[in-house]
Every structure is written in structure tokens, then in C-alpha cells.
Amino acid sequence: MEQVLPDEAPDNPDTDPILEAVALQQAGDSRGAYRILMDLLAADLRCLDAHAHLGNLAFPHNPDMAVRSYDVGVKIGELCLGTDFTGLIPWGLIDNRPFLRCLHGYGLCLWRFGRLKDVEKVFMRMLMLNPTDNQGARFNLSDAKKGNAWHE
After folding, report:
1. In angstroms, rounded to a whole number, what is the distance separating the alpha carbons of residues 76 and 35?
2. Residue 133 falls within a domain, yes or no?
3. Whole-number Å distance between alpha carbons of 50 and 37
4. pLDDT at 4
5. Mean pLDDT of the 62-80 span
6. What range defines the domain where residue 69 resides?
7. Which member of 42, 48, 115, 122 has the greatest number of CB atoms within 10 A?
8. How many domains does the chain have?
């Protein structure tokens, strides 16, 4: 997958609006992070990393909002892949990570909502797309299959 990052400055590789948003959030400025991420999406809705990080911002306190962000990212990624896609999306290729982050967050939200059968489908799909499982989907899948409730 090709990562879409609308505010990227090719002449200055040290600027990355996603990293700026993450730094603001970690510094306690969630509003500033939200503003950067929303500006990216206003410029181009295909910026999957913005959807993933908006989901991450909302997940601790508003899982309903988080699942919407992740879901939009997943759906846009699926449109880019096409209906006949059967290949791999390895984590090792950095442009694949935003889509995998969206899938992971989406699965965690479904788990938090207690939708265990849907959770199994999401994490199984993650394993099929990225068999090296850099995000621990196999552990989440195992817990969901056992009927374990989500916990932080």
C-alpha cells in the first residue's frame, strides 16, 4: 500500500505531521493532535494513519468515536486493495502500517464492545495479511476465541 501523507515536505524529511500529532498527544495536548490529524484528513481522506491515530486518541475515553475512525480507515484501505486481493501486507513495509493499525484498533474496539465473533474475523484477517504478526493479533485472537473479555 502507498501511504498518503498530504502535509509531508519531501525536501525536509524531518517533518512528519503524524509524528507531530503523536508528540502533542504524549505532551498532553490532545486538541493540538486532533487538529493536525483532522487537517490531514481535510486535505486527503486517504491518509489512513490519521484515521488510526484519531482512533487512538479517542479509544481510552470514547470507544464509539474510536471505532468510527478505525472503521473508516479500514474501509478506505479495503477500497485501495480491491475485492480480489489475496496477497500479504507485511508490517516490515512501512507504508502498510497505517492500514494494519486501523485493523488492529477496529478489532480492539469490537472486543471492547463484546462482539467476539467479529473480533475473531478481524484478528484472523490480520494474521492472513501479516503472518509475522508484529501487532500480537494471535494473542488477541486466542483470548477472543476463549471468550475472554477485553481489558487494557
Report:
1. 21
2. yes
3. 5
4. 84
5. 97
6. 17-145
7. 48
8. 1
